[in-house]
Amino acid sequence: ALRRELVVRRGKGIALTDAGRALARRFRLAIAELSAALSELEALQGRETGRIAIGAMPLSRARLLPSSVSAFHRAYPEVSISIVEGAFHELVEPLRDGALDCIIGAMRDPSPGPDLKQTALFDDRPAVIARHDHPLQTSDIASLARYPWSVPPPGTPLRDQWERMFADAGIAPPHVPIECGSVITIRQILIDSDFLTLLSPDQVAVELEAGWLRCICDVPPGLIRRIGMTTRANWRPTARQASFIALLKEHAGSS
Questions:
Q1: Which of 249, 229, 226 is nearest to 103 (CA)?
Q2: How far apart are CA 253 and CA 20, in angstroms?
Q3: Does residue 42 contact residue 50 with C-beta atoms inside 8 Å?
Q4: What are the start-end ranges of the E strands in the chain?
Q5: Tens place of pLDDT for every residue, the chain, 255 residues?
Q6: Are strands 213-218 and 225-232 parallel, antiparallel or unpaired?
Q7: What sign has the CA pseudo-torsion 76, 82, 88, 94?
Q8: Kind and range of the H or E run holding 161
Q9: Domains along the sequence of the chain with CATH
Q10: Class of residue 210 by CB neighbours under 10 A (exposed 0-12, middle 13-18, buried 19+)
Q11: Which one, of 198, 215, 194, lies nearest residue 146 by Cα?
């Protein structure tokens, strides 16, 4: 017997206690590890199977993840790949539960916890982006502060960099009328207005090449985003998962 209360009554239903949630997480992790072990046994018998579940944050979806996944599928077509898009706070609990094998995107500082491991892949330097015919002609910080901005919510790495860009210049960050982390939404806002944003050029490469948007300026050299992979600290990847990680690092090195 566990001798611990796992559920409590809430109105007409029941809810898990902290002990119940912890036990449920252990069961989910056990199921994920058993599934990985079965895939390894299948591989030893010459039957390639398995699954890789990846949490994809915005920047990873631009070039790194698509190129890595395509190369991996060509090499191992029998292995299924599941990509779940979202922000870090939406993906981290599924990672801890074993529903995801890894998260790829901007690394967190401070670290999200001792149960997780972050591995750096490459450094990204964002740029100030605007529509192609934006009236802004200079790139000094004071001029940037005179226009409306659309940037992600507070607490995200890109928002932290945006605030530092102004703070380092001794200028108060301007008001943000539209907080948004969706590149698709921000792109349309920029095209239709005088708004500015801070993004990696890779995230809007098509729009830049088409001439819809332009880079006003790069951020100062010290303001870089470290892009990496987050896994459970005690995660032991299968042979095929390890092959995917190797491909990911190879493609990151050429970014």
A1: 229
A2: 43
A3: yes
A4: 7-10, 13-16, 51-56, 80-85, 102-106, 116-124, 127-131, 150-151, 178-179, 197-199, 213-218, 225-232
A5: 557 776 777 877 777 777 667 666 676 766 667 676 666 666 666 666 678 999 999 878 778 899 999 999 999 998 899 999 998 999 999 999 888 999 999 999 888 999 999 999 999 889 999 999 999 988 899 999 999 999 999 988 899 999 999 999 999 999 999 999 899 999 999 999 999 999 999 899 999 999 999 999 988 878 888 899 999 998 888 888 999 999 999 999 865
A6: unpaired
A7: negative
A8: helix 157-167
A9: 11-123+226-253 (3.40.190.10), 126-223 (3.40.190.10)
A10: exposed
A11: 194
State both tokens at 90: 């939406």
What tokens does 92 get?
Answer: 């981290």
